[in-house]
């Protein structure tokens, strides 16, 4: 049997640092590779503010309109495709996928956002069915799924640059004092207890989807405080542990210890319980283009239903259902679709602009973390520090960045000297509006300077091998699970349909922006719609 390890030959690497805002950095007069700055279709999207659209010149009718082509929208579309209902999906951008989008160049495909999927929990039947259809699950042995060996992350999986050395794995241990190692072990043991715990209602304390987690008040109380306060209450103070937990919060939520709900923080460690016949429980599925591979599987057979460059700008209820007005960027005309129902697979800050109805919650409670992602192409191998070789995930201790993933990690065959690495930087802070504005104003050259300052610590002279840097700004990259949000009234009210005609599907309705939650929200909305059309 072919194994993942058979495919792997790797080079070596090494070191860590923090990334400040580009304008605040003092830098050596740098060599600058070609840099490009892009992002979602801001120009078209910002027309929602002006609302200077002409009257529709064409009209059509369908059963359902889906607004938004991210994972939730595509999941809903996939579900509807299996029914007899007719539908149209409107996507603002030139490409579907949302924050799971990807790209490619002559060397490799690469992600622009989400880049892996942990093994799903056994009870997540719909997701497991999808993975079987996509051949990510190839069969079963002893009632456990067998995952496609080509999609399981090849070794080496993860490394951390700490104390001038690349260690194996992301939990700090290289050069870490015994007292700190003991504290880390105690924390991980506590998280394991939460992972196996059940609430007074008999449900799992923490699971995916979020909605299926226990409603035991003794567990939900953790949503009222920050992860920082949770660690303090449990007398955890090791700087190595605090860094690691902060890294995890930044990675999954785009938030810091002081603005992440403790419930969400625990959920990160305690919710994933997937099992496999041919992989460890902490294995992940990944592809060169990241979760864009999953997006492409979701939209198979959906192309006739998808319209890109389509900006929905009004949703109007009437006696027969709903009317959706949208601007077609290709023809530069407005169009109208009459439907029996609409699925708003859009984040709430977009839904707010399209709907006139009072939905009974405060839109401002939905906060979104901005991100910067850069795909960096090198013409030669990376100069390495001592320790573990180049891995799929490469993280720098003490850096505000999340490090980078190696897009060529899943390549089978000869290793290429040319590389594409995807560098992730969540823009952390309590005021996402200011951070977002600042990110948009930062130039490609300024971003590149900051990225190089971070990368040159583990990879000396990396700038001499860089061919180009492509930068993407996600102004609203993911929902932030701030305290009192996940189990607060505003999130639950936002999920309620309007007059049983307008339904909602987006990962922000889960409070956590991960593939599984977006997939779940899309299926949930589609099932509800099929009850009325």
UniProtKB/TrEMBL annotation:
InterPro entries reported in the protein's UniProt record: FAD/NAD-bd_sf (IPR036188), Flavin_amine_oxidase (IPR001613), Zeta_carotene_desat/Oxidored (IPR050464)
Organism: Chryseolinea serpens
Transmembrane segments: none
UniProt-recorded name of the protein: NAD(P)-binding Rossmann-like domain-containing protein
SUPFAM superfamilies, alphabetized: FAD/NAD(P)-binding domain
GO-annotated molecular function: oxidoreductase activity
Gene3D superfamilies, per the entry: FAD/NAD(P)-binding domain
Cofactor(s) it depends on: FAD
């Amino acid at each position: 049997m072919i194994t993942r390890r058979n495919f792997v030959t790797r080079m070596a690497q090494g070191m860590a640092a923090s990334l400040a805002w580009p304008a605040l950095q003092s830098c050596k007069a740098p060599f600058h590779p070609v840099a490009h700055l892009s992002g979602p279709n801001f120009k078209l999207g910002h027309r929602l503010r002006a609302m200077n659209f002409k009257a529709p010149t064409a009209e059509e009718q369908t059963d359902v309109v889906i607004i938004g082509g991210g994972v939730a929208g595509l999941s809903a579309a996939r579900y509807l495709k299996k029914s007899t209902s007719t539908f149209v999906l409107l996507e603002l951008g030139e490409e579907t996928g949302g924050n799971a989008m990807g790209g490619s160049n002559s060397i490799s495909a690469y992600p622009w956002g989400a880049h892996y999927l942990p093994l799903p929990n056994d009870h997540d039947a719909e997701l497991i069915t999808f993975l079987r259809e996509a051949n990510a699950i190839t069969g079963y042995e002893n009632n456990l799924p067998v995952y496609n060996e080509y999609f399981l992350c090849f070794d080496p999986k993860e490394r951390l640059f700490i104390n001038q050395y690349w260690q194996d794995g992301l939990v700090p241990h290289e050069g870490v004092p015994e007292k700190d190692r003991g504290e880390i072990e105690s924390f991980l043991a506590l998280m394991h207890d939460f992972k196996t715990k059940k609430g007074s209602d008999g449900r799992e304390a923490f699971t995916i989807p979020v909605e299926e987690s226990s409603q035991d008040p003794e567990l939900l109380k953790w949503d009222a405080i920050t992860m920082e306060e949770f660690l303090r209450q449990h007398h955890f103070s090791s700087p190595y542990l605090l860094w690691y937990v902060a890294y995890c919060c930044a990675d999954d939520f785009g938030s810091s210890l002081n603005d992440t709900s403790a419930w969400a923080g625990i959920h990160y460690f305690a919710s994933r319980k997937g099992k496999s016949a041919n992989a460890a429980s902490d294995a992940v599925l990944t592809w060169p283009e990241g979760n864009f591979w999953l997006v492409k599987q979701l939209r198979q057979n959906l192309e006739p239903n998808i319209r890109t460059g389509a900006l929905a700008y009004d949703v109007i209820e009437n006696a027969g259902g709903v009317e959706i007005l949208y601007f077609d960027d290709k023809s530069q005309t407005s169009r109208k679709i009459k439907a029996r129902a609409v699925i708003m697979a859009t984040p709430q800050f977009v839904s707010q602009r399209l709907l006139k109805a009072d939905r009974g919650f405060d839109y401002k409670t939905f906060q979104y973390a901005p991100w910067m992602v850069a795909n960096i192409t090198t013409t030669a191998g990376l100069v390495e520090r001592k320790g573990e070789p180049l891995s799929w995930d490469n993280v720098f201790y003490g850096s505000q960045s999340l490090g980078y993933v190696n897009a060529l990690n899943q390549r089978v065959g000869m290793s290429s000297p040319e590389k594409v690495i995807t560098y992730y930087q969540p823009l952390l802070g309590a005021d996402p509006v200011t951070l977002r504005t600042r990110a948009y104003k930062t130039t490609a050259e300024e971003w590149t300077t900051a990225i190089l300052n971070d990368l040159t610590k583990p990879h000396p002279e990396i700038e001499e091998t860089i061919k180009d840097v492509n930068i993407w700004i996600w102004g609203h990259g993911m929902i932030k699970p701030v305290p009192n949000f996940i189990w607060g009234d505003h999130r639950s009210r936002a999920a309620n349909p309007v007059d049983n005609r307008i339904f909602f599907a987006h990962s922000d309705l889960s409070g956590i922006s991960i593939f599984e939650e977006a997939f779940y929200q899309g299926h949930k909305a589609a099932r509800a719609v099929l009850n009325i059309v």
